[in-house]
Structures are given as structure tokens and as C-alpha cells.
Amino acid sequence: MIVLKRLALWFGLPAILIAVWWAFTAQGVNFFVPKPDKLANTFVTVWFSEKFFTDVMPSMGRLLISLAVSLVLGVALGIAIGLSRTLRWLLEPLLEFIRAVPSTILIPVLLLLIGINDAMKITVIVLGCLWPILLNTIEGVRSLDEVLKNTALVYRLRGFDRIRYLVLPGASPLIMAGIRHSLAVGLILLVVSEMFASTDGIGYSIINFQNRIAIPEMWSGIFLLGIIGVLLSVVFQAIQKRVLGWYYGLKEASNDG
Amino acid sequence: METQTPILSSVAVSTLPTRGHTARRAAQWTAAGPYVLGVAGILAALIAWELFSAFGPVSQHHLPPPSVVIPTFLNNFTFTQFWLTVGQTMWAWFLGLTLATFGGLAVGLLIGSSSLLRTGTHTTVEFLRPIPAVGLIPLAALLFGPRIGAELLIVVYGCFWIVMIQAMYGITDIDKVADDTVRTLRMTWLQRVRHLVLPTLLPYLMTGIRLAATVALILAISSELIVGTPGIGRAVAQAQLNDNPAAMIALILTSGLLGILVNLIFRFIERKVLFWHSSVRSEVAA
Amino acid sequence: MTASKSDIRLSVQQVRKVYGAGSRNEVEAVRSLTFDLHAGEFACLVGPSGSGKTTLLKCIAGLLDPTSGEVVLDGRRVSGPAEGMAVVFQEYSRSLFPWLSVEDNVELPLKTSGVPKAERKARVKDALDAVTLSHAAKSYPWQLSGGMQQRVAIARAVASNPSVLLMDEPFAAVDAQTRGELEDLVREVWKRLDMTILFVTHDIDESVYLAERVLVLSSSPTIVQADIHIDLPDVRSQADTRSLHRFGELRHQVYEEVQFAKTNPGGERMSVRDGLPS
Ligand SMILES: Nc1ncnc2c1ncn2[C@@H]1O[C@H](COP(=O)(O)OP(=O)(O)OP(=O)(O)O)[C@@H](O)[C@H]1O
Ligand SMILES: [Mg+2]
């Protein structure tokens, strides 16, 4: 009974929405909105074909590589800047400015400088994804608990040990928050960079369908982006649950007390 | 011994002021350091850019040095066309953000206030929200062509979810204890909203709007870049077609300045609002 | 209690600490503190709130540089956290690494100082046994009660075999029952491992019960106002020791000094009663 109710709650609204959509498109032919069954068919034929290897895989590759690069750069620089007051003072205004640049606007310039290739797209995505991770890491390092820092000093945790056992885990809740933000930004930049200048990828495909006025195909691309977004956030949440298990436990414990 | 004593004491006397002196130096540095080093950092970056442009692996034409870009950047300020372009971007930004804020707030409050609605809409929201707004660019282009409607569709879609989710968190978070306390005080509905709902909701909402404001700028410019709606994004794309990198980079600097302006505005508003918020809090406590 | 000049373990010489020196809001937390601790001695430091106890402890631990004066550990001047010194902080919940399990918390200092794995495991086990927490080895600190967390911190401190153990009001935040147990635990560990302990507390009973020697600080600006030898039997128990006549006398004596300290900044007199251990 409870299971049924839960199922109804989870799938009720999507079912109603699809029914309405069906009813709406069944009346006549709407130029901009394809019928649900047509869209489902198109989705399968378009994306479960060689396009999966020629467009989806390259896009995902670019995104994941860029995220990895942003993570390594952001955390490494963030720790250095967070730990050094001089570096912080030196770089803060500069970073504040670079971060404020809406990163998609860099695409045309990077196109000139690097050319239409993966390196350009990865650079654009990294230039967008880096900031949330970098700034959160700095903040995380700076907000390390004073007593914990003293404890680490007393037990002579130095250099790499200090970073591995104190700084990184201590900053990890904020680093994870930064990564979550980066995921959303990264997907935006991936799509825009592929739309603006590319010969393959999901963004390129979607804009190509639009130019050919292939409406159902275009919609199927938008849906694919939604699915990728959901997958990314599911994977991220699973990782976060593992990495930050201690943090949620700690928070719960201090809320009880 | 007798000759040593004065030496010792003179050492003691002379070390004391030096200690005080270095300490005062340290205090002064703490106050001035951020400004001195901050300016130094920016200057160093400009010099590095100048040198890279002159001696680096890319042609100077593609990456003009700051000594070329900055005059272009400043010169822009004298053109009406430039201000018009900036105005177009900011107008779309403002309109899109406003619409998204009111829409997101209304829907977020509605859904957040009932746990049935929250669970009932969960799957739908979790599917629609991650669709990157820029994915809708082709649809917007088909529906509106290169006009502001296309830009608004994208900005509103992207920002709506951010505000909505924050509004939902805020309304869900209203402290049960505070709720009971206020209920026992027999406040009217209006007083409850003013003294309990708003103070809890506002910090969440402000966070949402601030996040949305930055995203809105990115989305507005993306749409200008690809759909060709008027604004800075389109100006950059045109400069690229005209093979004018100096103009492009000057526009990028402008966009960074706009980004900073947006941040400053929201920091200012937030301070005002949170000030108001804390004053209301203390009223309740009294 | 036979102590000679040669077995001085920790020497605090005219330590002075001024916070924010050179700025407009200078605070002279500690004026001039001088005392020695001998090897194997258990001393308590009592003083009014804000008298600079934590400040002094941080200077000894090498976490703060004294404005002038020096701290000498085993003949070497302390200029940073020194080997052979361990600290138990008052804020136990914030001093354990919440992302490490209890045993990993105890093991970490051994690991980073290069103790071989087999020995490490054995020492962690011994330390956890000593504080009767073996059953909680795999738990996380935040899953434990306050008293248990403080026991983990003590286990971590003793596992590294320190020659000097500094404790800053370690039991201020635990309930009275647990507190008694922890006090006995500390004395037991002290006897077994032959450490020098400097224990900060503002609880007069606790200081007399625990220590062989009580140092009373004046209120700020701070000096050592009294140095009292505690001549209670070596074997102590909560019920018996506290009801001894001598316990009452000593408690009274310390109480008087603390009362005097509260009203007398920079302590105008230096009273040495019952003699320093000679
Ligand atoms: N970081 C600091 N900066 C400036 N002043 C400080 C700082 N830490 C402590 N003080 C001041 O130094 C004095 C001594 O502080 P300290 O914490 O050492 O006292 P305490 O004896 O440990 O007090 P308590 O019993 O309350 O723990 C106080 O007046 C305090 O305000
Ligand atoms: Mg203290």
C-alpha cells in the first residue's frame, strides 16, 4: 500500500504531464512540439546509433577531462592560496576579476588562439569550472578549525602529511560543494562551445538539427542533455555520500546534542 | 661586572623599542598588505600578458597586448553604440532575472509548503532541472529568431530552477520550534509572515538570486553569441568575423567588469536585506 | 620525591606574552612566569579565568612564541611544537579528526612520525585498552559521548609516549561522574608511564586531588603567586582521599590563594608555602 502510494507520488506527475502532452499534440500537428511516441522513437534511432560514438562519447570525454583538470588545478591552487596569506593578497583582486568574466564570452578568442579542437573546448570548460572549486577550496582551507590546526601542529603533522590528513579532509565539504557547482557550469560550457565551433559533439548535433529544422531530433538532443545532467548528479551524489560520510554523521550528531 | 651592567641594560633598553617597532611594522603591513600586493598582482599579470603577447608562441595579432587592448577598452566608453550594446545585455539580464525570481519564488513557495507536493513533483523537478538552459538555444532560436524573446527564454529557464529550489529549502526550513512559539503568541497571519516566514526565507532567497544573477549573465551572453540576439555576446562574435581581436578582448574586459558590478550590487543588497532580517529577529526575541 | 637540579624536565623562564604587540589593543596576558617541572612530576595550574593559563600552555607547547623569556624542554629551548610533548585540549570534540575513526585518530601521530606498522598497532591497542575504549576502536569520534571523546584524546596523547603531557582544562565540559573516572584514569596513566604532567584546571578540588604540586596564578597580568606542595598519600581514591582531613586543609589553602589572586593582579607577594620539592 505504502509502496503503491510512493510509486503514485513519484510517477503520477510525469504520467499526467505526458498524458497532457499527448492530448495536446494528438489534436493536430504542432510544428514545434512532436508527439511523445515520435520523440521516443527519434531518441532511440538518433542516439543509439553510431552517433553515440561520434558525438556523445567525445562530449562526455571533454567534460570529464575538463572536470578532472579543474579539480586538480582548483584544489592544488586553492590549498596553496588558502595556506599563504601573501599569495592570497597577491591574487585575490586578479581572481575576483577573472572569475567575474562570464566564461562563454571567451570562446571566440580561444577559438582564434587555439583553433577548433578539443584543447579549445577543454580550456573553455576549465576556465569556467575552475573558479567554484578554487574559491571553495580557499574558503575551506581558511575555515579549518583552530583547535584541529593546533592539534595537528602539536603532533607535528608537516608538509604533505598535514595536507593529506588535515587540510584536504577538512576542506572537503566545501570542495564538494564547489564541484557540484562546477558540474552545472561545465555542462553549459560544453554545449555552448560545441554549438559555437565544433564538428562533433552533442551541442553541435543539436544546433545542426535546428539548422535542418529537424524538430523531433532537436528535442531528442535536449532530452539527452537532461539525462546526462541527471546521471551526473546521481553519480556525484553517490560519490559525495561516500567522501563526506563523516561530515553528515558529524552534523547529525551536533544537531542532536 | 660594573662595566658590564650598563652594557646589558643598554641592550635591554635598545631591544625593547625594536621589538615594539617591528610589531608596529607588522600591524601596518597587515592593514596595507592586501592593497599593495593586490595591485602588484594585477600589474604583474598585465606585464606577463604584454610579454607573452610579444614573445609568446601565438601571433601578436591574435593576442594583442594590454598596451593595445586597454586604450581600445577605454575608447569604447566614448561610443554611444557601445553603451547601447551593454544596455541591451543588461536589460535582458535584468528582465530575465526578475521573471525567473518571481516565477521561481511563487512555484517554490507553493511546492515547499506541502510535503505532498514536494514528493509529488520531485521526479519531474529532478529531471527538468539538470537540462542545461543552453540546450534550449536552438528551440529559442526557432521560436523567436535573434530577438530578446530567445534570450529571455534561456535566461528564465536557467535561473528559474535556482530560485525555486532555494525558495523551497527556505520554506521547508522554517524552524518548527520558532513556529510553535509564534503560534502560542497568537500572532495574526500577517504578523507570522513578517516575523517568522520572511526572516527565515530571505537568506535562502538572497543566495538563490545571487547565484541566479551570475548564471543569468552567462546565459544572456551565450545566447547573444549563438542565436545572435543583440548585446555584448553578439558584438564579440562580430568582432571575430571582422578579425578584430583587440575589440574582442576589450569587450571581454567589459564583461568582467559587468560581472564584478553584478557581484557588488548583490553583496550590497544582501547586506541591506540581512540587516533588516536581523533587526526583525531581535524584535521577535524581545 | 627526590628531585635534583639535573632531572629538570621542563623549565619556564620569565615567560611574558603580549597579544597584539604594537597595535592599539595590546593585551598583556602573562607578565612573567618562572617555574620548573621535574621528571615524573604531576603539577596542576590553577588561576582565575582569563589569567593566561591557556596562553602559557600554548607557549610551552610551542604553539605561541613568548614575547620574551623562554621555555626549555630537556635542556633544549622550545621554538615550535617539540617532540616528546603532547597536549590534550579542552575542546575535545574539535581536537579529534572527525574524518578518522577512533583508532586512526590514535594512530595518526605514530604514523607520521614513522613508527613501524606492527609496533604502531600494538601501541594503539595498548593506549585504547588503557582508557578502556577497545570496543569503540572502529567508531567515529562523533558517535561517542563527551567523556569517551576525551578518553580518545588522552589515548592519542599517551600513545606517542610523551615525556611531558600538557592538559588544558580537559574535564571542564564533562559531567561530575565521568569527571571522577577520568581523573583516576589520568593518575593511573601517569604512574604507569612515568610522564611529567602539567594540568590546567579552575577546579580547586580537582587540582588538590590530582597533583603533587599546585601552582596558583595571579589574575592578569600574571605571575606565579603560590607554589603549594600536596603531601597526600600516593594512592588516591575518590571516596577516601577527598574525605581526608589533610585534603580539606590543602583545599582551603589553595582556595585562599585563588581568592587572593582574583583581587590582586600581578600578585604583590610571592608566597612559597610548604616548600618547593627539594
Ligand atoms: N588570541 C588572542 N588575542 C588577544 N588576546 C587574547 C588572545 N587569547 C587570549 N587573549 C587574552 O589573554 C588573556 C588570557 O587568556 P587565556 O585564554 O590564556 O586565559 P585562561 O586563563 O586560559 O582563561 P580561562 O580560564 O577562561 O580559559 C585574556 O585576557 C584574553 O582575553
Ligand atoms: Mg583557557
Residue share in helix of chain B: over 70%
Mean pLDDT of chain C: 86
CATH topology of the largest domain in chain B: MetI-like fold
CATH top level label of the largest domain in chain B: Mainly Alpha
CATH architectural type of the largest domain in chain B: Orthogonal Bundle
List low-confidence stretches of chain C.
268-278
How many helices of chain C? The count is 9
Query: What is the CATH homology-level superfamily of the largest domain in chain B?
Result: MetI-like
Number of DSSP helical runs of chain B? 10
Structural class of chain B: mainly alpha
Q: Tell me, what is the CATH class of the largest domain in chain C? A: Alpha Beta
CATH topology of the largest domain in chain C: Rossmann fold
Helicity of chain C, as a percent range: 25-40%
Give the ligands present. adenosine-5'-triphosphate, magnesium ion
Strand order of the largest sheet of chain C: 5-4-1-2-10-9-3-8-7-6
Main β-sheet of chain B, in a few words? none
How many strand elements of chain B?
0
Strand-and-helix sequence of chain C, N→C? EEEHEEEHHHHEHEHEEHH
Describe the overall structure:
The complex is a heterotrimer of chains A (257), B (286) and C (278). With 257 residues, chain A is mainly alpha-helical. Chain A has a single domain (37-256), classed as MetI-like fold, CATH 1.10.3720. Helix content of chain A is 85%, strand content 0%. In chain A, helix 5 (107-114) crosses helix 6 (118-142) and helix 6 runs antiparallel to helix 8. Chain B folds into two domains: 4-55; 66-280, MetI-like (MetI-like fold, Orthogonal Bundle). Chain B has ten helices and no strands. Chain C is α/β, with parallel strands linked by helices. Chain C has helices spanning 53-61, 92-95, 102-112, 117-130, 146-159, 176-193, 204-210, 238-242, 245-263; strands spanning 8-19, 27-38, 42-46, 68-73, 76-77, 85-88, 164-168, 196-200, 213-217, 222-229. In chain C, strands 5-4-1-2-10-9-3-8-7-6 form a ten-stranded mixed β-sheet, sandwiched between helices. In chain C, helix 4 (117-130) crosses helix 5 (146-159), helix 5 (146-159) runs parallel beside helix 6 (176-193) and helix 7 (204-210) packs across helix 9. Chain C starts with 7 loop residues before the first strand and ends in a 15-residue tail after the last helix. The model of chain C is unreliable at 268-278 (pLDDT under 50). The chains are: A mainly alpha (257), B mainly alpha (286), C alpha/beta (278). The complex binds adenosine-5'-triphosphate and magnesium ion. Magnesium ion (MG) binds next to helix 1 of chain C.
